[in-house]
Amino acid sequence: MNDELQGEVTRGARAVVVYPQMRTNRDQDADARLEEGKGLALAIGLEIADAFTIPIREPRAATLFGEGQIQNIAIACEQSEAELVVVDGSLSAIQQRNLEEKLKRKVIDRTGLILEIFGERAATAEGRLQVELAHLDYQAGRLVRSWTHLERQRGGFGFLGGPGETQIEADRRLIRDRMARIRRELEQVRRTRGLHRDRREKAPWPVVALVGYTNAGKSTLFNHLTGADVMAEDLLFATLDPTMRAIRLPGVEKAILSDTVGFISDLPTQLVAAFRATLEEVTAADIILHVRDIANSETEAQKRQVLEILTDLGVISEDGGEPEKGGEGGIPILEIWNKWDLLDPDHAAELSGLISEKGNRDVVPLSALTGEGCETLLATVGEKLMAGAKLYSFAVPAEDGERLAFLHARGHVVSETIDEGDETPVVRLQVRLSDRELGRFSAL
C-alpha cells in the first residue's frame, strides 16, 4: 500500500476508533471487539488517538449514529486532534459520506480498513488479485461518493459508452469489466494451484495446515517449527497468503507445514468470497492444527468463528463432526492452546485439569514464543498421521523411485529387503500405512 490511505489520509494519521454496538450483538464482549478494532487500525500504521463504544438502539439510515452521538465523536476528534474516524462496523455509502460531511474528517468503516490491510500484506499474485477484486466490489457501491458533483453525461462515442451514458454508469461498467477480467485470471491461478495440489497429494509428504484466529500465534509457531522468516508481528492479519515449508516429524520422514490467513469475526461478505480460495489449501491437508490464543478472554468465541468457516469449507460437518472426504474419512483436527506462558498459574492448572479429566489427546498446550510444548506437538502430529495404520507388504521394482519414496515418507517402514530377481531388482517392504495413504499409494 502506498503512504496514502484511500488517497486521502497518510499512514501515521491520528484516528478515533468507534465500535457501534448494535442491539443484535449485545452478548458480544464490547471491550474485546473494541480492542480488535484498534488492532485493525494499528495494522495499517494509524495512531490511536481515542477509542470508545457507542450503543446503537435504532440505527439511523442516513448516518447510523444519532445527532448527539455524532457530536460526541466530533468532540473526541477535536480534543485528541484526530484527522480520521474508524467505524468498526459496516457503513453504507450514504452513511459514510454524511458522516464525513458532519465530522469534517475522513471516515473509514471496517470493510475499508480490512481491505487496506489485505492490500498491504498480500504477497502473491493470487492474493493481490483477490484484494483488487474485493476492493472493486466495495468501490462499485460507493461511486456515488466520488461522482455526486459530476452529473454530466457523455455522448455516444462507441467504445466510450452509449448515448447519454453518465460518468457514474461508465465507471461502473469499467469496474464490472475489470472484475470479470480478474475473475478469469483468478480461475487460471486456481487451476494452476489445483495442479500443484494434485502433485502434492501424489508426492510422498503429508500436509499439515495451521489455521486459527488472526493474531493467535500461527506465524510464530510456523517460524519456530520450520525456522522460516514469516512475518510474525503482533498485528492482525500478519499473514495473508499460504506459506509452505518442510518439517520433520517422529515416524514420518518429512511433512509440509502450511501457514494460512487468520480468521476474524464479522469478516465482510465480499472478503469471505474473495479470500475463500486462500483457504482452499486447508481442504487438501492430512491434518489441521487449530491454533488458539488460550490466554484471550474471547478464545471460545474465536474458536466458534474458525469452526464456522471450516464448516463452510466442508472440512467439518454442520454438527461439528468430520465429514466423509472422498471416501477416506474426515481431516483430523488438533487444537493447539498457544500462549500458555501468558496464563496465571491458577488458570493454567484449571485448563490442565480439563485436559487430563477428559483424557483429551486432541489438545496440545504450548508456547510458540518460548518453544515449550513444541516437541510434544510434533510427536502428537506424527502419531495422528499414523493413527489407524495397518501393516502391509509391498514388492516394488527398485527402479520405481517415486513409489519407494512415498512409502518411506508417508508410512513407517518396518522391514526392507532387496530381491535381485531374474530381470530387475525388487524391493520387498513391510510398511504401516493409514487407509488414506494406502489409497494414495494405489493411485500412483
TrEMBL record:
Family: Belongs to the TRAFAC class OBG-HflX-like GTPase superfamily. HflX GTPase family.
Location, primary (coarse class): cytoplasm
Subunit structure: Monomer. Associates with the 50S ribosomal subunit.
Matches recorded under InterPro entries: G_HFLX_dom, GTP-bd, GTP-bd_M, GTPase_HflX, GTPase_HflX_N, GTPase_HflX_N_sf, P-loop_NTPase
Keywords per UniProt: Cytoplasm, GTP-binding, Magnesium, Metal-binding, Nucleotide-binding
GO cellular component: cytoplasm
Pfam families: GTP-bdg_M (PF16360), GTP-bdg_N (PF13167), MMR_HSR1 (PF01926)
Keyword Protein biosynthesis among record annotations: no
Required cofactor names: Mg(2+)
UniProt xrefs under CDD domains: HflX (cd01878)
Binding-site residues, GTP: 212-219, 237-241, 259-262, 338-341, 367-369
Chain positions recorded as Mg(2+) binding sites: S219, T239
Location of the protein in the cell: Cytoplasm
Protein's job: GTPase that associates with the 50S ribosomal subunit and may have a role during protein synthesis or ribosome biogenesis.
Name of this protein: GTPase HflX
HAMAP family, per the entry: GTPase_HflX
Organism: Novosphingobium fluoreni
